Amino acid sequence: MSPEGLLSEAELYERVARLAALDRPSASPGELAAAELIAGELRELGARVRIEPERVHGTHWWPTGLPVALGTLAGLLARRDGASARLIAAALAGLSVAAVVDDLGGGKRWLRRRVLPQRDTANVVAELGDPAAEQTVLITAHHDAAHSGLIFHPELARAFFRRFPGLLERANTSPPLMWGAVGGPALVALGALSGRRTLRRIGTGVSAGYAAAFVDIGLRATVPGANDNLTGVAAILSLAHALAAAGGPPPGVRVILLSAGAEESHQEGMNAFAERHFPSLPVESTHVFCLDTLGSPRLVVLEGEGMLRMEDYPVSIRDFVGRCAEEACVDLQRGLRFRNATDGLVALRAGYRCATIVSVDEFKVPTDYHWPTDTADRVDYARVADGARLCLQLVRRLAPAPSGEGARP
After folding, report:
1. Domain total for the chain?
2. Is residue 113 within 8 Å of residue 38, measured between CB atoms?
3. What pTM did the predictor assign?
């Protein structure tokens, strides 16, 4: 343990390895077992801890896979002669587009919430400091793990960038992998309405490809999820140890540590937390920091993210995180945007001052992302320790101070 009370790299490894041994798909008994272990350690440190069960669907391949399969069927139907068949095909493809946009774009998520089966996930919520403090700092990670899939093969992006290193140098935004889930059915609809076979055929092929990819993901096992995202959980536990060693957060600051379930089913646990708690967390006095996949060689504060539409985090908060990293002697990379979605996106859409901290390798992608090799022995624990130290500095700097002092945003 460090002089500040933060966990050592060996202690971080022990926690990641212990949790990674559990099979933790979203909203599963293994996820609950992980939640209980995390809650137990936080409770021993004197935090006010509760495990909040929430009803969620628990997958991402059904809410997106079913609509793209519908888009594929619409494309096949549009081959039939007759205006009525083409109109029906266009309507079905349009419904597919609407369902995918609703689920991935921050909508009501009617398919997963109103149609598909539900089960329980477990959010771990721990509080330290005065509940009536002037400032609240919410730091979140997630303890569930993802299913694998061929689309996540580590060599797909790396082989391309080895062949074209100049593109790697210029690429600061990850590829829009989910655009095809909208674009495929959209092309089917356009082709059906216009009678253009080429559009319909391309759209049908793209939709079928996405449907097959989601079937592949749903049939595969859950990965150990050490980097994604037990590294974030370990950083939260490390911060809790440091705050406990200091007798609590600085005066005027309440710290909420959230280890969410069902993040891998597209932020269902965080969305449930938001519905339950955001009404009591004032936007003007709450900062949110999301920790996700901290165990790659280069720590990063994201400029923005979003599966369908890029949404940037507030410039002032990104700059604030950068200043705190310098003060904590943490090497923090800037300038990257991800075409994905972390729990931080939920807070961003709710209007909070927030940022998401991740990590990448030399190819600007997270190490072992959604792949069976995401094991505890492959994590860069120096970066996880950096992430915890950065969080401690963020909490310290957000303590109320006389006007004009400190590095607060």
Report:
1. 2
2. no
3. 0.94
